[in-house]
Amino acid sequence: GAVVSQHPSRVICKSGTSVKIECRSLDFQATTMFWYRQFPKKSLMLMATSNEGSKATYEQGVEKDKFLINHASLTLSTLTVTSAHPEDSSFYICSARDLPQGGYEQYFGPGTRLTVT
Amino acid sequence: DAKTTQPPSMDCAEGRAANLPCNHSTISGNEYVYWYRQIHSQGPQYIIHGLKNNETNEMASLIITEDRKSSTLILPHATLRDTAVYYCIVRVTGGGNKLTFGTGTQLKVEL
Fold first, then answer.
1. Is the dihedral of CA B1, B93, B52, B65 positive or negative?
2. Does residue A56 contact residue A50 with C-beta atoms inside 8 Å?
3. Residue A94 CB: number of other CB atoms within 10 A?
């Protein structure tokens, strides 16, 4: 099946620094990738939709200047948390949508645990 | 996308069938029923989806009522590794459609 990877799997950073999380589709091309955030014991909340070669579409309430998304190729999207604060500590998960021949299913990465101290 | 309602938690004995219900009474004619699961601290995993016919794959079976207002995911022989949160989502397939996750059902498989 389609595989999506994320790097790093865990990251600890100091308050005020920026952190970049990578999402890669390993065996398929993804025109669209999605970024989710999940707080402990809560469900996944969509942050933004990332389209290759164009600007990301952010969900209401998500600061686009704080969560920078770049989808430079059909296999890579990055999420940069800028000037991170402890309240940004969360589990960040990406998903990638296969091209039409793959059936439009979404495949999820393993997630990145961000802890801001 | 139509809203879904699932019980917050269920228990199942290992080796028995786990039947997870989902209500989606406002589903539209062009909306599919999708099931994903999330094992603790991992990304969600696609299980199965269907429109109106029952579906079966190597992981599970999906039973959709004739009026499509509810469905049941069946894990025929649950194992401890099936312990996870199961999400039922209804949405139109195709295009760049987002997945909207509800609270899901926490399935606990026990010995």
1. negative
2. yes
3. 31
Which of B4, B39, B41 to mutate to probe the A interface, most A CBs <10 Å?
Answer: B41
Question: Cβ distance A26 to A110 under 8 Å?
Answer: no
Tokens coding B65? 């009522």
Residues 6 or more apart whose CB falls under 8 angstroms from that of A75 comprise A24, A25, A26, A29, A30
pLDDT of residue A34: 94
Distance from CA of A41 to the nearest CA of B (A): 9
Residue A100: the pLDDT is: 57
Transcribe A30-97 into DSSP letters. EEEEEEEEE-TTS--EEEEEEETTS--EEPTT--TTTEEEEEEETTEEEEEE-S--GGG-EEEEEEEE
Q: What is the pLDDT of residues B88-103, one digit of tens each?
A: 999 876 555 678 899 9
In angstroms, the CA B10 to CA A66 distance is 38
The C-alpha atoms of residue A96 and residue A25 are separated, in whole angstroms, by 7
